[in-house]
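Sorry to interrupt, but I need a hand with the structure work. Go ahead and set the record down below:
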Amino acid sequence: MNQCFPNVGPLPEVDTKAMIEVDRLMMEDYQISLFQMMENAGRCLAILARDIALGGAPENKRVVVLAGAGGNGGGALTAARRLATWGAKICVITAQGHDKMADVPKAQLDILLRLENVVEMTIEEIDVPVDVILDGLIGYSLTGAPRGQAATLIAWANENPAPTLALDVPSGYDAHTGTIAEPAIRATATLTIALPKLGMQSEGNAQHIGSLYCADISVPPELYHSLTPSLDIGFVFKNSDIVRL
């Protein structure tokens, strides 16, 4: 895999409770909307996919995006849209009906499906090799093991030879405890958002995390100080929106 992002070493980790507070402060105190955060996360995931999985040349490459109903799914759908505008052929697979999706991810899906090189289908309908899989099924708010269609899609991704890039955490990763549920995505690489989640930098979780990167979604440094006075990451994204951990 192409190593084109600066390596900054380990960063402080946050758990689900802390990330919920980060999201709240972003929206309420700084007026940075969920849509804006989703756009930033999705753009970074698209760049990572292009540069480390598609050889820097996304045109005519086949991308499957697995999308859940929440913000994680919305970010992956946003990434798929960016890749589509760079010439990739996108296959969308959702873990639920459109009516079950939250408003902002649903809006991202509606935008994506307007593009001519995007189709929605099931895993049974995929009959050609895939170049990369984007995992946006379940984010940091996982409670209990994945089940139903999400579990089926995780199993499919793990059996597919294409590299899988997970957004924020691999689906099935429990950010409450830093442990792995069953089933869980075995990612080739994970692009975590803002800061790594609890336990992601542990060697014991490496087979599910893969190579670990972190994406800038424009969290103000002072927000972290208000959350925890000792939480100081400096200006880690000053040279790149994506860093390697």
The first helix runs from residue 16 to 28.
